[in-house]
Structures are given as C-alpha cells and as structure tokens.
Backbone:
C-alpha cells in the first residue's frame, strides 16, 4: 500500500452527487451508491463524502442515505456536513462511517472539536478547513460552503484545531476547486509545516503529478473530485481512478514527513 493516500472527495446535494467549481455552480454527477460501487471495483483505499447543502439549509445529516452509502462502501468512509452535536456523530459512527469531518460548526464552536475528540478519539475527528485567497492573494478561512469569511489565518487556525484534538486536517482551496489548476502548494506547505497531524490536500488536482507536488509539500494524503468524476476536455461524466501502477510510479518513493505523523488516540 502507498504511504500517501489518494482519496476521492464526493459532494452530496440531496440524494445526488454533484461537482462544483470554486464551491459554486454544482453540476449533477450521478447516484452516490452507484458511484461508491464503482470505486469499490477500482479498489480505492478511502472516500470522503461531504453534504454541501446540510449546513446552508440548516438541517441535520441525511442519516438514512449515509447508512445506504456506508453499507455499499468497502473502504473507510469520512462524512461531513450538518453535524452539530455529539449525538449526530454517535449516530453516524453507528451507521458504519469511520471519520467525521467538522467545518462550519467547529469554526463557530471550536471546543466541540475537543468534546468530539475526548468522546470518540482524535483518529475519528477530521477538521475541515476551506481557504479562499483575496484579490491580493491573502489566504483566509471561509465557512458555510465558502459563503462566509471566518477571517482566520489558516496556519494559525489549523494549529488551534490540532491543539483541540483534531486528528487530521482536510485543507481545501476554494479558489482552485474544480479548476484543474493544481493544488495551492504554498498553502499546503505552510500549513503542513505547522502541524504534527496528517493533512489531506484538496482542491484543483489535474493529474497524478499534482499528487506528487502536494506530497512533497508535506501532505499525508491527497483528495480530488473533478479528476475522478470527469473525463476529457468537455468534462463528460466518467468515474475513474488511476491504476496502482500509475500511483506507485508517482508516489511510491515518497514518505509522509512531519506534516503526516500518526494521530493519537
């Protein structure tokens, strides 16, 4: 198994999978259960599933759908979206989900990260950080699906979330989401350098070469959406994943560094 994890990041809206560009203009991709079945066949190691509408619509996670998806998922599954209580987390874990990503609610109530970590273990808690650069290039944390500016510096914010017990950081570039323009490597490098827990780089991957650049910058894992659901210049929907040989050739010689240490229980 590769030491650098490569993870499809799937966006849920209602009962459909969608894909966004810079967190806007969601386009229909397909049925989440069928998509997960395809990724099973491709022997994907891990999947991230984010409900991008739950927080905006002020509703709880879609527990029944999560159960259906988890029941078909043969690999570890991380879920995020609309989680605002330890009870929600307990229910989601009972459905077969291994990790829960916390974003907007963690920004509003950072102590919830500590409560979740104390109860379920830091290895089950992923702190999700969405970052948007200003016109002058200054990176700042955004919440509520990129709609609201938290204003925090992402490096300091990631360090705070780690200190509260987050076992992993999911770092997504809003500016690069769905653009195939490559990861924000400078941002990945800066945040990784400040952490001792693993970081998942997300937003902008155009190919396996981008995976290597993110890993060299310190990422313990790389996530992608468009790359795994579209094919060709016209973005025809085609669920795909690099072969093991391709990934080994690109990432086989890279070992996660200080930004990818083991999480504590």
Residues:
């Amino acid at each position: 198994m590769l030491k650098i994890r490569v993870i499809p990041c799937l966006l849920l809206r209602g009962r459909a999978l969608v894909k966004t560009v810079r967190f806007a203009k969601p386009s229909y991709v397909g049925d989440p259960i069928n998509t997960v079945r395809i990724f099973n066949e491709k022997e994907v190691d891990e999947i991230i599933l984010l409900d991008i509408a739950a927080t905006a619509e002020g509703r709880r996670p879609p527990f029944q759908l999560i159960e259906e998806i988890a029941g078909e998922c043969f690999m570890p599954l991380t879920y995020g979206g609309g989680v605002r209580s330890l009870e929600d987390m307990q229910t989601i874990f009972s459905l077969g989900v291994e990790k829960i990503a916390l974003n907007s609610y963690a920004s509003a109530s950072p102590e919830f990260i500590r409560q979740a970590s104390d109860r379920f273990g830091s290895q089950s808690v992923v702190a999700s950080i969405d970052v948007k650069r200003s016109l002058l290039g200054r990176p700042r944390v955004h919440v509520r699906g990129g709609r609201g500016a938290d204003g925090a510096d992402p490096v300091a914010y990631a360090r705070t979330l780690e200190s509260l017990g987050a076992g992993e950081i999911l770092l997504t570039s809003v500016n690069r989401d769905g653009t195939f323009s490559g990861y924000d490597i400078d941002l990945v490098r800066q945040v990784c350098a400040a952490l001792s827990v693993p970081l998942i780089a997300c937003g902008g991957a155009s190919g396996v070469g981008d995976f290597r650049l993110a890993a060299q910058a310190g990422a313990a894992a790389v996530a992608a959406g468009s790359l795994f659901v579209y094919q060709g210049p016209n973005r025809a929907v085609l669920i795909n994943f690099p072969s093991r040989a391709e990934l080994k050739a690109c990432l086989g010689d890279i070992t996660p560094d200080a930004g990818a240490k083991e999480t504590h229980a």
About this structure: The longest strand covers residues 5-13. The two ends are 23 Å apart (CA to CA). Residues 258-265 have pLDDT under 50 and may be disordered.
